[in-house]
Amino acid sequence: MSSQTHMAAVQDLLGQPRLALYGLSHAPQHFSHAVLGELRARGHEVIAINPAHAGEEVDGLRLWGSLAQAGQAVDWALVMTPADHAAAAVRDALDCGLRRIWLYRGAGRGAVSDEALALCAQAGATVVPGECPLMFLRDTQWFHRLHGWLQKVGGNAPREEAPA
Fold first, then answer.
1. CA distance to 12, 31, 121, per residue, from 118 (Å)
2. Residue of 33, 27, 11, 40 whose CA lies nearest to 102
């Protein structure tokens, strides 16, 4: 699987209204809260998954231990866990029938791991491996747009089309 993302996958996932957010922290300064807020402001419905804090509430959302426990259908999964927990989140999403998965990365490895990528590939899932969704949302704060621009200038932005 190529580590280069295709813009069509980014647009497809962000175009889906219901998502499972794996790794929503109950620390309010954690970046997952910024992503949650931006997605909700754009009309996305979010189911929060955090097995370590299942049953607690964060930002008005109940934290579930797994997507199966939540018992709600979603269109895609956004994995914002540390890389060493990403495969478990991907496995949970795949077990619930999801085939659209975004492995978040802002800095460092983020949620990208070889095992998580291999699970996605084996399942034939559409995967966005290692991007921040805020770079692709309209009208985000300037530094998110700058991050996206730097990715583009550096040749690391998602490609518009798959190679022939």
1. 21, 26, 5
2. 11
160 burial (CB, 10 Å; 0-12 / 13-18 / 19+) is exposed
pLDDT digits (tens, 9 = 90+) for 29-67: 888 998 999 999 999 999 999 999 999 999 999 999 999
**Token output for 57:** 């509430």
Q: Which residue type is seen at 23?
A: G
Low-confidence ranges of the chain (pLDDT < 50): 1-4, 142-150, 153-154, 163-164
Q: CA 117, 12, 157 angle in degrees (round to 5)?
A: 65
Indicate the helix (H) or strand (E) that contains 28: none
Domain boundaries, the chain: 7-151
Using alpha carbons, select from 143, 40, 23, 147 the residue that is nearest to residue 87.
23
CB-based contact 22:93 (threshold 8 Å): yes
- Phi then psi for 108, rounded to 5 degrees? 70, -155
Out of 3.40.50.300, 3.40.630.30, 3.40.50.720, 3.40.630.10, which CATH number does the structure's domain 7-151 have? 3.40.50.720
pTM of the model: 0.83
